[in-house]
Design brief:
The complex is a heterodimer of chains A (127) and B (264). With 127 residues, chain A is mainly beta. Helices cover 13% and strands 35% of the residues of chain A. The N terminus of chain A is likely disordered. Chain B has two domains: 44 residues, no CATH class; 179 residues, Calycin beta-barrel core domain (Lipocalin, Beta Barrel). The chains are: A mainly beta (127), B alpha+beta (264).
């Protein structure tokens, strides 16, 4: 199982590098490879769609204000083969996550991992 | 009456070819005659076991990309590619039309990160491409390549069996596709694929592109695929929720939905 998904995951990642044969687009808008954590995020919305899934969360700032974040993710066609589904995340879930940040400084990036309150971690790329 | 006679001949030919040689003349459309239909499906059972869902082997794609960098280009093709890459300095060509949900065409259609499925039907080999839910039809019913083909993203294909290898010829490529990123086909571009089972659960496709205007000699690349017995092909409708874009010069943009959700 791990061997299969390893190759698949690498495939899905490398496909995002500009070349004929990419399914969708390049990763140039992200600091690809720089994994940054975000703790205690509350799920606002989980979009289980092609060509990318999207995860929207909120966090509480020190001053009590709310910050909203948007993360692009892998296609359901990839994720479903690693055990993710449309009900993996739901509004109100409190999670930690990691991501590769957007280069333009907006609140968001490309989601890499999600860790649930029970400590279980799931990965978008390396299953 | 004439059609029934022709089908009977095809059916007799199919039965006569029992053994390792599949019936190449099976009608690709549903035969009217029950005996011909039965013979056509029996012939399929004798074909190499290409059927199934196959995932591209990414190590092979990595090697293939390296080979593309060494492709034997003509001076004209070299100039086209140099101009394409030079424009990246101005921020152009950083995003392909894939970001606008446009399929990449041949040969890239066989090298997406999502699987393909081979399905036999009488007189043709169907290759279903999960990415953008595409279909390639490789007609094995003996028809010739079109003399004046329409210019399609995946071309028009005919195939014949060379032992257990399917040899596919494809012509008629749209100028909108890229053979290698930044290099567009001409109306003379032709492709030949040799498709065979390379080992347990492994399929090999060798692709040769010929176009004297672009390549100083035929350019061959190799791909392998791994059988995924637990997978079904899934739908992939890129326009479902596409937030990415490339403008006419290939400059990327992305709408993460900050505005629509009041996020900022």
């Amino acid at each position: 199982m791990k061997r299969l998904f390893g190759g698949l995951a690498a495939a899905a990642v490398l496909a995002m590098i500009p070349a004929s044969g990419t399914a969708h687009h390049s990763t140039a808008m992200f600091e690809w490879g720089k994994e940054v954590p975000l703790k205690n995020a509350t799920v606002l919305r989980w979009e289980w769609t092609n060509p990318h899934t999207f995860l929207y969360v909120t966090t509480k700032e020190a001053d009590g204000s709310e910050k909203k974040w948007a993360f692009e993710g892998m296609s359901p066609n990839h994720l479903v083969r690693g055990g993710w589904g449309r009900r993996t995340l739901k509004q109100g879930d409190v999670i930690d996550l990691t991501y590769y940040p957007l280069r333009d400084g907006r609140n968001g990036g490309f989601n890499i991992t999600v860790t649930f309150a029970n400590g279980k971690t799931i990965k978008q790329i390396d299953f | 009456m004439a059609k029934t006679f022709r089908l009977m001949i095809a059916s007799a030919t199919a039965l006569a070819a029992a053994g390792s040689a599949p019936a190449a003349l099976a009608e690709s459309r549903a035969p009217a005659d029950p005996a011909a239909r039965s013979a056509a499906y029996a012939a399929i059972a004798r074909l190499p076991a290409f059927e199934g869902v196959w995932q591209p082997d990414w190590a092979a794609v990595t090697r293939l990309r390296a080979a593309e960098g060494q492709a034997p280009l003509t001076p004209a093709a070299r100039r086209e590619l140099e101009a394409f890459h030079a424009a990246k300095e101005q921020g152009e060509n950083l995003q392909t039309e894939g970001a606008n949900c446009r399929p990449v065409g041949m040969p890239g259609v066989m090298r997406y990160p999502y699987p393909i499925e081979f399905i036999y039907s009488p007189g043709k080999v169907n290759i279903v491409i999960e990415t953008h839910s595409q279909l390639r039809q490789i007609f094995t019913d003996g028809r010739a390549l079109p003399e004046d083909p329409d210019l399609l993203f995946n071309g028009s294909s005919v195939g014949r069996w060379d032992g257990d290898t399917l040899v596919v010829e494809t012509v008629g490529f749209s100028p909108l596709i890229s053979l290698i990123e930044g290099l567009h086909p001409t109306e003379q571009t032709r492709m030949r694929e040799r498709i065979r089972l390379a080992g347990p659960g492994q399929l090999a496709v060798e692709t040769t592109i010929t176009d004297p205007a672009l390549f100083s000699e035929p350019f061959t690349t190799a791909m392998t695929y791994r059988l995924e017995p637990e997978w079904d092909l899934r739908e992939y409708i890129c326009q479902e929720n596409n937030r990415d874009a490339a403008d006419a010069e290939g400059r990327p943009s992305m709408d993460l939905g900050f505005d629509s959700l009041g996020l900022d």
